Amino acid sequence: MIFKCRNCGGNVVYSPEKHKMFCPFCESEESQEVQISSGAISICPDCGGEVPVKEHTAAIQCPYCSNYLILDERVEGRYLPKMMIPFQIGKETCKQMLRDKFRKKVFAPTDFLSEVRLNSMEGDYVPFWFYDYDVSADYQGEGTKVRSWTSGNMRYTETSYYDVRRNVDVSFRNIPVDASVQMPDDVMDLMEPYDYGQLMDFDPKYMSGFCAEKYNMEAGAVENRAKQKMTEDTVTLVREQVSGYSNVRQKRNDIQVRGAWQYYGLLPVWKYLYQYNNVEYPFYVNGQTGKIVGTVPISTKKVLAYACTLWGCLTVLVGCVSVWALLCV
Amino acid sequence: MDKELKREALRQYLKYFKVWFIITGIVVVLTIGAVIVRVVADNRPRGNNMAPTERVFDYADVLTDSEEQKLRQEIAACEKKAKIDIVIVTLNEPMGESDRVWENNMMNYADDFYDNGKYGWNRAYGDGALLLDNWYEDSNGSQKGSWLSTSGKMEDTIGVREEDVVLDAMYAYIDTQPYQAYRAAVYKLADYGEHGYNGVDEGEVLASLCCAWVVPFIVAVIYAVMHMSQSKAKDTTTAKTYIGREGVNLRFKSDDFIRKNVTSHRIESSSSGGGGSSHHGGGSHGSHRSSGGHSHGGGGRRR
């Protein structure tokens, strides 16, 4: 489908800044009407150009007419997301955030933050599985309390041992795990957390103006990551319930899952791929919170130039200080 | 494109080091200026015409006439180089049997001699040093010893350590070759006058050169490493990030006492260790005023 403008026929896109559908051609707002495509998914229904649709593409920009296409059959049926967070940060804001964050990285290549390079940034809706768990944790440990006092010239230390038991129910909601082979897991974990206050039911209009993938990893295949997060968090939360001891030795901590649910949804990510010396340096920006994940490439020439200049300046300054010291005595 | 990138890189570089270049430039200009001023000042002729030309007063008569003459010539050469007045006075007079009286008398004699002669390279009572060496000895014992009276820049330069160096150099010869002894003292004083309290120490010069190169190098390496190190991002989730509205519900809690252990140990009484105290021999080294009201430094000791 394509969102077309009723007034001018242009492609209406979702504007994160305005939080509305917006036609960049006639600047009208909420003027969209849906144009359903009927032909092959790799053919642009607007201009007829061939679109490089990949196996998991759910939304893409036509390279010929620049319209954003949403592939109906990849957001329907089993691929219909239950929920999503629309982009809250627009491209210009995202560019500025990258500039602000990396401005002090003096050894970054000169054009790393150039307008031309940053314009290549792309907004992607990444498929995620969200897991809900209701768990019970049965904890037993041995706690020690230590008390010391002095009497005369003797020092006494009393160690008391306690049998510590806790039974805690914890409800986890929406533990996210990315369902994309293309997206690196560690990076997607670092993008968290998203603010679920803005989580809403899926609406394809929010995809207009962005690219997207359908899930390409089944819920069962990635659930281990969610379970691992849940287990680690449960252990921490149960330990928080045990206090007042000098030391606690855990004897057992049985975590039982009483209920588990999973949902499919989309989360917004800005992606900036920077190529330097034939190596790709990807940067990901949380499209809602603006959290940036990525490491800047280092220009060896800059490192040498800057470090040597600093060395030279300091040498001259220390030399001058030495001369002053000699002059003053 | 490449040219534009290079131009942009140069612009970023100059912008980044702008403050460094300005500060370094100012410091270099000021240093060059100071060196020029110092060189001009160093080449300034003697500014005191009130002092007598005599520098060797051998009242104890321990030097031959030719030795006195040689010493005068050497003092003249050293004074020109170090820009200080150097006066040698030998005595054979009682200065007091107790250390305190001896030191007081020696100090006053040396200070007054310097002041009465209005010595000083740059002005009367200015830069210079006077070495007073007493040879007095009687049936009650020896009052032999030396006192160094310093003035002007030498007052700041000669401290306890430097004074010891001068007197040690002198005492190596004093009993057998008085001329060599005074000559050694004159050269040491001239050395301090010319180079300050550091004197000319090749090791220290080498160390300061290394310092001027190596320390900035280390700083530059640290700077480079610090700017190169980076992490992808921090994990900002906590154990409570994904807790639902139902939250954490503590259903059961028990803390049952099992047993206790009590251990004891005797507190060892600690005895205080005796501290050492050090005593440094020798007369006063602080700044003081002579009877003429002029500031002097220095000190001395018996031998």
What topology emerges from the helices and strands here?
The complex is a heterodimer of chains A (about 325) and B (about 300).
Chain A: E1 2-5, E2 13-15, E3 20-22, E4 32-35, E5 57-61, E6 68-70, E7 83-84, H1 91-102, H2 115-118, E8 122-151, E9 154-178, H3 185-191, E10 200-201, E11 211-213, H4 219-240, E12 247-276, E13 279-286, E14 292-293, H5 300-328
Parallel strand pairs in A: 7-12, 8-11
Antiparallel strand pairs in A: 1-4, 2-3, 5-6, 5-11, 7-10, 8-9, 8-12, 12-13, 13-14
Chain B: H1 2-42, E1 56-58, H2 65-82, E2 85-91, H3 99-116, E3 128-134, E4 137-138, E5 141-142, E6 145-151, H4 153-157, H5 160-171, H6 178-195, H7 202-228, E7 243-266, E8 288-289, E9 295-302
Write up what this structure looks like:
The complex is a heterodimer of chains A (329) and B (303). Chain A has 5 helices and 14 strands. By secondary structure, chain A is α+β, with helices and mostly antiparallel strands. Among the domains of chain A are: 173 residues, no CATH class; 31 residues. In chain A, strands 5, 6, 7, 8, 9, 10, 11, 12, 13 and 14 form a 10-stranded mixed β-sheet that branches. With 303 residues, chain B is an alpha/beta fold. Among the domains of chain B are: 42 residues; 153 residues, Roll (Diaminopimelate Epimerase, Chain A, domain 1), CATH 3.10.310.50. Chain B contains 7 helices and 9 strands, in the order H-E-H-E-H-E-E-E-E-H-H-H-H-E-E-E. In chain B, strand 4 and strand 5 form a beta hairpin. In chain B, helix 2 packs parallel to helix 6 and helix 5 runs antiparallel to helix 6. The longest helix of chain B has 41 residues. About 4% of the residues of chain B have low confidence. The chains are: A alpha+beta (329), B alpha/beta (303). Chains A and B meet through strand 8, strand 9, helix 3, helix 4 and strand 14 of A and helix 1, helix 7 and strand 7 of B.
User: What Rg of chain A is obtained from the alpha carbons, in whole angstroms?
Assistant: 28 Å
The CATH topology annotation of the domain at 56-201 and 296-302 in chain B reads as: Diaminopimelate Epimerase, Chain A, domain 1
Estimated share of beta-strand residues of chain B: 15-25%
Distance between the termini of chain A: 85 Å
Question: H/E series of chain B, N to C?
Answer: HEHEHEEEEHHHHEEE
Secondary structure class of chain B reads: alpha/beta
Kindly state the mean pLDDT of chain A as a whole number?
A: 92
The number of strands of chain B is: 9
The coarse silhouette of chain B is: flat
- Terminal CA distance of chain B reads 83 Å
Tally of individual helices of chain A: 5
Q: Any low-confidence stretches of chain B, pLDDT <50, length ≥5? A: 272-282
**What profile does the largest beta sheet of chain B have?**
6 strands, mixed
CATH architecture of the domain at 56-201 and 296-302 in chain B: Roll
Q: Tell me, what is the CATH class of the domain at 56-201 and 296-302 in chain B?
A: Alpha Beta
Kindly report the greatest chain-chain contact and the residue count on each side: A-B, 80 and 76 residues
Rounded to the nearest angstrom, the radius of gyration of chain B is 34 Å
Report strand order across the widest sheet of chain B.
Answer: 1-2-3-6-9-8
Relative strand content of chain A: 35-45%
Report on the biggest sheet of chain A.
10 strands, mixed
